[in-house]
Write a structure and sequence with these properties.
alpha/beta; Rossmann fold; 5-stranded parallel sheet; 32% helix; globular
Length: 165
């Protein structure tokens, strides 16, 4: 089962991710969510998916949200520190980073360092975390067994750029 942290759960990517979770509840569990100011939608998501921790934009929004979900055992955090806690929660094994702009960079990098993000798809900004090393797109895990990346380079040659000649 994939245990998810969804950064930006009230945006279009987050909402669509949660629709997939809703369709396949035996394959996914939502551990943590984050949102900015849309606490109405976040509250609905909390009631539906019962995450263990949620993060919002700032302290004032966190206090309002805490009042609307009173009586539930859900930790409410805020700010960049809150985003990092959502992305690096120990029960999470996969992170969906759907936050617009640079604010998502720090929690995403924190998740990569803990091993919660993996490269998915053909996008150049994708990350892959394998064996405690972060590789960029086009590189495969090599353990000295002669495997090469998609450019035909061995692990020792990864610093070279075939496009430059």
């Amino acid at each position: 089962m994939k245990r998810l942290a969804i950064l930006g759960s009230t945006g279009s990517i987050g909402v669509n991710t949660l629709d997939i979770v809703r369709q396949f509840p035996e394959q996914f569990q939502v551990i943590s969510l984050s949102a900015g100011l849309n606490i109405g939608l976040l509250r609905e998501q909390i009631l539906r998916f019962q995450p263990k921790i949620v993060s919002v934009l700032n302290r004032e929004v966190a206090e309002v949200l805490q009042k609307t979900i009173a009586g539930r055992k859900i930790e409410v955090v805020y700010g960049v520190e809150g985003l990092i806690r959502v992305a690096t929660h120990p029960e999470v094994n996969q992170v969906v980073s759907a936050i617009v702009g640079a604010v998502g960079l720090i929690p995403t990098l924190s998740a990569i360092k803990t091993g919660h993000c993996r490269r998915r798809g053909p996008y150049p900004h994708s990350f892959c975390h394998q064996n405690r090393k972060v590789h960029s797109l086009g590189q495969q895990r090599a353990s000295g067994d002669g495997r090469k990346d998609r450019y035909g380079r061995s692990k020792k040659e990864w610093g070279s750029n075939p496009a430059r000649g």
